[in-house]
Amino acid sequence: MEANTNLLTIYEVLLSKYNNQNWWPADTPFEVIIGAILTQNVSWINVEKAIKNLKDEDILEPEKLHKKEVDEIAPLIRSSRFYNEKAKKIKNFMNFFFDEYNGNLSNMSREDLVILRQKLLGIKGIGEETVDSILLYACNKPIFVVDAYTKRIFSRYGFAKDTASYQDIQKFFMENLPQDTELYNDFHAQIVHLGKNICKTLPQCNICPVREINDKIKCRYYSEKR
Ligand code: SF4
After folding, report:
1. Number of structural domains, the chain?
2. In terms of pTM, does the model score above 0.90?
């Protein structure tokens, strides 16, 4: 199977159907980082409320947020669930950000991808999906973000085993796509769109644009259920 061609073709079909998703939905790269931390295990609508509260308090800027304590941040992000833990994670990130890069995103983005990824993974409470979202959407680094939608769609499609790890799936995408930040950016966004709206827990294969692109590129789940 020519995975390279297949993955790109799947992306192109999604792009032509849904248009560029223009991710990440944020006003600044710093807002992307805070949104990436807040969105763990919660829907985006709840993150938006937390982001709005931080903006209304005028603290969604590195210098200002760095000065806030966990107990000052927590009530403002209550809508994002697990808000005490998330306030600690934000505080952990802010301390790292100022210790390592003086709170300057350009400094952080200039860091080598592999080194920066390792450093970010060292922050307590920040996992791979969050780190890769920060790297891709805030720092413009070419790294593919994997989430539950990616795993579900591409295991149904036949590209990944149900037991595949985050690293397995990320490696599959990155080895079979050109190293292209814009492509990684919008492909992940298209996957989220498909997973949220079509390839849901109960998939709506009858309206799925990638169910059968041609004789060679078709969804295994759809083919077997027909
Ligand atoms: S055809 Fe069905 S199972 Fe396959 S990707 Fe589309 S919605 Fe998901």
Report:
1. 2
2. yes
